[in-house]
Amino acid sequence: MKCFRCKGEMRPGVTTFVTDKDDCCIVIRRVPCLQCDACGEVAFNGEVAENLERLVKAARQTLTEVAVLKYPEAVA
Ligand SMILES: [Zn+2]
Questions:
Q1: Separation of CA 1 and ligand 1 centre (Å)
Q2: Which helix (H) or strand (E) holds 26?
Q3: CA of 68 to the centre of ligand 1 (A)
Q4: For residue 62, what are the domain limits?
Q5: Ordered alpha helix ranges (H), 5-70
Q6: Residue 7, CA atoms < 13 Å, CB-side half-sphere
Q7: Residue 2 counted as domain residue
Q8: pLDDT at 5 over 80
Q9: pLDDT value at position 64?
Q10: What's the number of domains the chain is made of?
Q11: Is residue 1 domain-resident?
Q12: What is the largest CA-CA distance in the chain?
């Protein structure tokens, strides 16, 4: 897979996903991703993107201001 920003090579890795809106900051660590060698751009596959959306929704419902999850445990 090629990076859509710089056409560099995307390689499998892990990243930390952060979303911060409406006074609620959600951090999801160790998320599998593809990362560009050259510019650092990160892409998620469809399954991971769906899981992230689900985890973010669930975390927001707990009404904590800051939630930190580990992806491998959260989706298990
Ligand atoms: Zn790139």
A1: 11
A2: strand 24-36
A3: 27
A4: 10-74
A5: 46-61
A6: 0
A7: no
A8: yes
A9: 85
A10: 1
A11: no
A12: 40
Residue 15 C-alpha to ligand 1 middle, in angstroms?
A: 15
Distance 54 CA to ligand 1 centre (A): 27
Indicate whether 11 pLDDT > 80. Answer: yes
Query: What is the CA(13)–ligand 1 centre distance, in A?
Result: 14
Query: What is the per-residue pLDDT across 13-70, written as a single tens digit (0 to 9) for each?
Result: 999 999 998 888 999 999 999 999 999 999 999 999 999 999 999 999 987 899 999 9
CATH of the domain at 50: 3.10.20
Whose CA is closest to 62, among 25, 30, 28?
25
The answer to whether residue 15 is domain-embedded is yes
Per-residue model confidence (pLDDT) at position 62: 87
